[in-house]
Design a protein that fits this description.
CATH superfamily of the largest domain in chain B: ACT domain
Number of helices of chain A: 21
Largest interface: A-B, 18 and 19 residues
Mean pLDDT of chain B: 95
Helix content of chain B: 25-40%
CATH class of the largest domain in chain A: Alpha Beta
Oligomer: heterodimer
Number of domains of chain B: 2
Distance between the termini of chain B: 28 Å
Distance between the termini of chain A: 75 Å
Strand order of the largest sheet of chain B: 2-3-1-4
Low-confidence stretches of chain B: none
CATH architecture of the largest domain in chain A: 3-Layer(aba) Sandwich
Strand content of chain B: 35-45%
Number of strands of chain A: 20
CATH topology of the largest domain in chain A: Rossmann fold
Helix content of chain A: 25-40%
Structural class of chain A: alpha/beta
Number of strands of chain B: 8
Shape of chain B: elongated
Number of helices of chain B: 4
Shape of chain A: globular
Strand content of chain A: 15-25%
Largest sheet of chain B: 4 strands, antiparallel
Low-confidence stretches of chain A: none
Mean pLDDT of chain A: 97
Radius of gyration of chain B: 18 Å
CATH architecture of the largest domain in chain B: 2-Layer Sandwich
Largest sheet of chain A: 6 strands, parallel
Amino acid sequence: MKMSGAQMVCEALIAEGVTTVFGYPGGAIMNVYDAIYKQDGFEHILTRHEQAAVHAADGYARATGKVGVAMVTSGPGFTNAVTGIATAFTDSIPLVVISGQVPLSLIGTDGFQEIDAVGISRPCTKHNYLVASLEELPRIMKEAFYIAASGRPGPVLVDIPKDITAEMGEFVYPKEVYMPTYRPRYKGNDRQIKKAVEAILDAKKPLLYLGGGVVLSNASGLVKELAALAQIPAVETLMARGVMGHENPLLLGMLGMHGNYSSNMAMSETDLIISLGARFDDRVTGKLSEFAKYADVIHVDIDPANIGKLVDVDYPIVGSITDVLEKMISLLKHSVKPDRYQAWREILARYNELHPLKYDDSDDVLKPQWVVQRVGEILGKDAIITSDVGQHQMWTAQFYPFERPRQWINSGGLGTMGFGFPAAIGAKRGVPEKIVVNFTGDGSILMNMQELITAAEYNIPVINIILNNHFLGMVRQWQTFFYDKRYSETDLSFQPNFKALAEACGGIGYDVTTKKEFDEALKDAVKQNKVCFMNVAINRFENVLPMVPTGGALYNMLLEHKDK
Amino acid sequence: MQEVRRVISVIAMNESSVLARVSGLFAGRGYNIESLTVAPIPKSDLSRFTIVTKGNAKVIEQITKQLNKLISTLKVIEHEEMVEKEMVLIKFSANESLADIKALCSAYNGGIVNAGENSVIAMIADESKRIEYFLSAAQKYNPLEIVRGGVVAIER
């Protein structure tokens, strides 16, 4: 069938099963928007900033497991999208981002709204394309979706010059990709897996170290099966919260800079790390030379470059977690004695009794940890929880009772403030039957607050809980601990009336200062089913604890902070 | 860990911006490039990159893995048993002793490839280390300009 390049873009999206596109039009992408106007295969959500469009597509992808799609114009449209693309890249989220580009004849002439999009995005995409002719457009669209979702997922940019979207041509969408240079490896090496299983059987203190890869590969069922079968305790990274389920007796908690005591001690004392889809990030390991000194390492990852990058690995296994775990489980089934690690589990239980995750509640002022726990009590597994970046993110990761993967959505790798609200919009669009709550701070929320309009227009009822301490809290905490309380540019006392702001944009606002008010507000927010800002005044100087100071060993945690 | 010199060949799709993907990877991750030579592979849609780099074993392992990870990469060869050559063009004043220059060049598998009124140009192709020896010996004849071509290598 003959059609324009713009129509081809739409047809390709429909062929890929895309039902929602987040974007923002502009000059160079107008032909595609004209084609969007004429089709009804997918909906388009107009965000109010390109960064938010990409975060929304990202939140959609994280919540549904499908590829998220964002569309932007050339120049500033694209550069605004870069933070969103980089956020998805760092957390391995499958996205296809389509950007307009100036016509081929203008490329390289510093044309209006021209910027080298493939050049800028090269280090923060899994792959990118500048479409050079109409003939290659269908193939590139097909490859973009395949690359984004396969192997270690990631964002793919397709930059399309305006004249190509206007040109007419024959549309044949390829059924398969032919990419001899890209063959992700899913099957783990049988011999390596066998050796790893023997190591598990020999170990006295094995530990499952679970990363975001478990979520991405939908392997949490197998992970729980393995843990239960062998009775091996587990720690989760920030990206893996929800994998084990908070009530699982084998789950110690989150490890790392703000991990709980027993998790970090388990990592420091284990004799065998079974790393599944984790990448030994510096926020997890602390001082590398002191990290897990007594442990051999089994490292299962779909990306060979992750293996041996930071920590020496004794049993490297490249493959998908599902394939590797299926094989491991069938080997372990008849050989493992679950009581073998009993003593180890008892030690860890004692660590947990010694220093459980805790906070001092108060009747005078709301504590952020209480707010997070309270939302957990009321909404529990029924909610999808997103967050921005900072103290509120850590409190949420520590105190929310996550029950399943894809329930927890946050920018872990890049740490992008402004991620939470648009990601929540995307998540809600992808999973409309769930309540979506974004925990945010008075700093982060302002970085994409314009999305109030988007959420109000499309009636996407996201509950934003602003844990408001009138500070850029995490930086303030570091200034308290490490910079002698020189609060350089972190006091956010001058701030908008959040309630009025939400109302001005067609949402609902709440001002909350007590537990009673909070319960009422949350109940009302759920009932009203509209986008809202819940401005919750919390203790100004609350700190996130425990804390492993940067560069310190994982076992050297600050468990409390006494003000001098 | 000790730093070693490594010659790595990358066979990748010959498409626009593939050179930027390879060189950008080195720049972005802080790896060294001592020399980089690239040309299309005849009768194919592929290009061959020859990269000379330096780093400890861990860094070299990451370099090969990251290069492999590029979507456009077909194959990465970390050379061990190889024949390695580098070309150099060198210009001397015609007033220097041409016979001596010619003798020196022939000791390094090279010779004079162009002679003009004011200058002569010699070409040598040899291992990088021997190129270094040649260049230091050639200093005696006051070279006017030196152009090194970068290493190419082929596994034995």
